[in-house]
TrEMBL record:
Function: Condensation of UDP-2,3-diacylglucosamine and 2,3-diacylglucosamine-1-phosphate to form lipid A disaccharide, a precursor of lipid A, a phosphorylated glycolipid that anchors the lipopolysaccharide to the outer membrane of the cell.
Protein keywords: Glycosyltransferase, Lipid A biosynthesis, Lipid biosynthesis, Lipid metabolism, Transferase
Name of the coding gene: lpxB
Lineage: superkingdom: Bacteria
Lineage: Bacteria, Pseudomonadati, Bacteroidota, Bacteroidia, Marinilabiliales
Protein name in the entry: Lipid-A-disaccharide synthase
Entries under NCBIfam families matching the protein: lpxB
Length: 380
């Protein structure tokens, strides 16, 4: 089979690479062409564009890079048609991929979507685009299957690739002592700071996270450096502070931390699956106005963290926009650092989360389901 994959950011590169690895085990004649990153490239095939050269975040960046965006669409469309794959596999990255789904569908190219855009959370009208242009959806969150079924989309839940990434993570058996020596950290217990993978998130959330440093001097606060940033990018935030940065070792840091402060997103789920108690804190521009718009108009779900959405309750505390304050953040973190009822209950909730999510093997399961579907779809 000839596979064309499109992933537009670091997480997509990771999960697409695991899927490619599974395809190679199931399909000895697998050929790949893709938009992605280093991890996908390591699996073989041809990298057309690296996600670092295509990523555009936020309305202002979109306006400033319209020419570049149009150029990327034109290149991708031309390249897709010339390659003529058996299937186009889209991985998250909704802004780009939904347009490519429409183009591919119009040109009779089979379209599978892996890792759904979060249409259940906001802008639910986009589910109509998915139904019109996507042949099959492969979801990674348990509650997504019911949502898409209700909207008439052919959908399968194939487990979550985060489980694979965590299971296969490097240094998962190393001791705390080995971890701190390897990263030149001190002996104090750690508090992990996961401030996001985009500069906008970091600008809004990291400064307030760092205000906790002086409140808990008996702990060493360590920033989980995102793959797309260097330690120098964090230096203006921590100048003169007793704070360390560990780059591209988020799992290692979290598994060796007493607690974590985490922005919303996949990081909340990863932190929970690594059994690290956490406070979800997320701020953006606009204060109370943005809070009102988000909760009353945009966000269509009860929670902002995946942990709470999956468990359907507030298992981890969410401090979002108007609900955020430094006092609340300090109180929540203090409770989790101690052997408090809150900490114990959160760890019990994590046990239930593991049960619902299942174990590793989702990438192989997804590849198997896709190949079974391809046999059916290619005969139509």
């Amino acid at each position: 089979m000839r596979y064309y994959l499109i992933a537009g950011e670091a997480s997509g590169d990771l999960h697409a690479s695991n899927l490619m690895k599974a395809f190679k085990e199931k399909d000895q004649e697998a050929e790949f062409r893709y938009w992605g990153g280093d991890l996908m490239e390591a699996q073989g095939g041809t990298l057309v564009r690296h996600y670092k050269d295509t990523a555009v975040m936020g309305a202002w960046d979109v306006l400033m890079n319209l020419g570049k965006i149009k150029e990327n669409f034109a290149l991708c469309q031309k390249d897709l048609m010339e390659y003529n794959p058996d299937v186009l596999i889209l991985v998250d990255y909704a802004g780009f991929n939904l347009r490519m789904a429409k183009f591919a569908h119009q040109h009779n190219i089979l379209v599978y979507y892996y890792i759904s855009p979060k249409v259940w959370a906001w802008n639910q009208s986009r589910v109509k685009k998915i139904k019109a242009s996507v042949d099959r959806m492969f979801t990674i969150l348990p509650f997504e299957k019911k949502f898409f079924e209700e909207h008439g989309v052919d959908v399968k839940y194939s487990g979550n690739p985060v489980l694979d990434a965590i299971h296969n993570r490097p240094n998962k058996e190393e001791s705390f002592q080995t971890f701190i020596e390897r990263n030149q950290l001190d002996e104090r217990p750690k508090v992990a700071l996961l401030a996001g993978s985009r500069m906008g998130e970091i600008n809004y959330n990291l400064p307030d996270m760092l205000k906790m440093v002086e409140k808990f001097p008996q702990y060493q606060f360590v920033i989980a450096g995102a793959p797309s940033f260097s330690k120098d990018d964090y230096q203006p935030f921590i100048e003169g502070m007793d704070v360390a940065v560990v780059s591209s070792q988020t799992y290692e840091l979290v598994q060796n931390s007493r607690a974590a402060l985490v922005t919303s997103g996949t990081a909340t789920l990863e932190t929970a699956l690594l059994n690290c108690p956490q406070v979800v804190c997320y701020k953006m521009w606009g204060g109370g106005f943005t809070d009102f718009v988000a909760k009353k108009i945009l966000i269509k779900v009860a929670y902002i963290s995946l942990v709470n959405l999956i468990l359907d309750k507030e298992a981890v505390k969410e401090l979002f926009q108007k609900a955020f304050s430094l006092e609340k953040l300090e109180n929540e973190l203090s409770a989790l650092l101690e052997d408090s009822p809150q900490r114990k209950q959160m760890l019990l909730d994590y046990v239930e989360l593991h049960r619902i999510m299942g174990g590793p093997g989702s990438s192989m399961k997804t590849a198997t389901l896709m190949l079974e579907s391809l046999k059916i779809d290619k005969e139509k």
